[in-house]
Amino acid sequence: MNIRDFEYLVALAEHNHFRKAAEACFVSQPTLSGQIRKLEDELGTSLLERSSRRVLFTDAGLQLVEQAKKILSEVKLFRDMASDQSGAMTGPMHIGFIPTVGPYILPRIVPKLKEQFPELELYLHEAQTQQLIHQLEEGKLDCLVLASVAETAPFREIEVYSEPLSVAVPCEHEWATLDEVNMLELNGRTVLALGDGHCLRDQALGFCFAAGAKDDERFKATSLETLRNMVAAGGGITLLPKLALPKEKIKDGVCYLRAVNPEPTRSIVVAYRPGSPFRSRFEQLAETIKQQLGV
């Protein structure tokens, strides 16, 4: 057996389809299928229950898939440590961003990174927190730029900045003439929020619930822009992070107010695996973000 066999096995587990797994590994379907059979023969155990409609792993197969993932992660770490580029901003860097950070940071930092580090190959991935964490654990991503949450505790974190959240209300709202609003004023009110899976949902609602507000269970947004448009249409009020705010206090039917007592915030960090040898690269990434955001 060899490392490539492990890659085939993991790809098949991820895609649950021989053709798709073969495409992901850049080989033909017969090649991948044949190697899996050879691996079964070598191990002396069945990894799959084969049918014409789906791929179903045996219990032994599932256990070996998990072990293969660990082996591939260690192999990647070995190669990274052997590379003489561990401290240089050159070569590939796979970075994950959550949807409430990526659209507002990337246009500001990517041009600067390309200008400062022309030999750096950026691969940018946007997904929700849980998916990014899973990809970081498996070695598919080098680091993440996201809000620090309990699930990121096993990783190393480089703090980038503390981002305040502002209250967004329709222009016709009674608070629209104010510059700031006490969070206690949300007591008894209903707020709009993102859908499940967005870490900002839990963070924003945590502050709102503490103030006595409740979640509008009839609506769950898929993005900050959807939330903004709902507020503009008079559909309710919400909390939005500073990066997503325009320079103007009032724009396109939405009025933005500073929230106080307490000021709701989230901590944006660069997270990476504890064993990664690329800490200096991630520190440079964090510093570039700080410089471009002026924090």
Automatic annotation (TrEMBL):
This is DNA-binding transcriptional regulator OxyR. One of its GO terms (molecular function) is DNA-binding transcription factor activity. It holds the Pfam family LysR_substrate. InterPro entries: LysR_HTH_N, LysR_subst-bd, WH-like_DNA-bd_sf, WH_DNA-bd_sf. The gene is oxyR. The keyword DNA-binding applies. Keywords: Activator, DNA-binding, Transcription, Transcription regulation. GO terms for cellular component: protein-DNA complex. Residues 1-58 form the HTH lysR-type domain. Belongs to the LysR transcriptional regulatory family. SUPFAM superfamilies: Periplasmic binding protein-like II, Winged helix' DNA-binding domain.
